[in-house]
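Materials and Methods. Structural model of MBL fold metallo-hydrolase. The 296-residue sequence of MBL fold metallo-hydrolase from Microbulbifer pacificus was retrieved and submitted for structure prediction as follows.
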Amino acid sequence: MRRSLISLLIPLLFSIQSLCTFAEDRIAYKIEHLKDNVYRFTAGHYHSVFMVTKEGLFLTDPISEEAATYLREQLSQRFKVPIRYIAYSHNHVDHTLGGNVLAKDGATVVAHEYAAEDIKWTRAPTAIPDITFRDQLAIELGDSRVELRYHGPNNGRGSVSMRFMPANVLYVVDWIVIGRMPYRDLLGYDIHGMIHSTREVLAADPFDLFVGGHANTGTRKDVQRYLSYLEALYDAVLDGMLAGKSLETLQSEIRLPEYADLPMYEEWLPLNVAGVYKTLVEMSYFNFRTDIDAEF
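The predicted structure was written out as tokens:
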């Protein structure tokens, strides 16, 4: 009887230990200095950026209520200046939740008009933006400023780039990811918009440091390589579909070996292919094309 009880308890203990480890990994937080008065906040696999001035703090995505609570406490201990602004990168709730925590002492919340509209329409449980803009907005804070720019559709609604000056740090969430493959089957992405927006970023004034909402920080060269991957992926799927190939065939044939060093290459390349395929069917209506001998 005792031996049977032990045999039951051992797997249970391992399960509890695994769950605890997962929970710890999920809520791992980190604050690191990037350049000049710009810092990066990490919560698990998510990143946001904040800027410190004598007049106060400019924060970006709160990520979650738990992450925002941790960040708020750390900022009050480390910098002793108020939170003046919070800017959402886009509408997705895995980046905007927790805005109510950071804004409760009167900070001004900023977002693109489409992101703000979506937050209101969906009744997302976070702080509603106080200031919205259509194309671009510059916010001065002390001797620094943040330049927010809308590049058109790319991921979610109202996704923008943020350039922190004079540090010249560029922050973009989700539609540019360096040091890793784009996420799975490109859920919520517009492949045409991703390519267009990334080209626009690279055509603008050079930045000194790129920071993403996920994965790595990097340089202009890293962003150029990311764009090259998107273009190669899109061209490979498009050419295959124009030739009448099925999704299954495309997933088995498309390899793009020059990007095989990217983390999640083997796991996510077939899913990336599926994401582009889905966009061309659902957004570009390839299934109505009479010049292609295929069933989509």
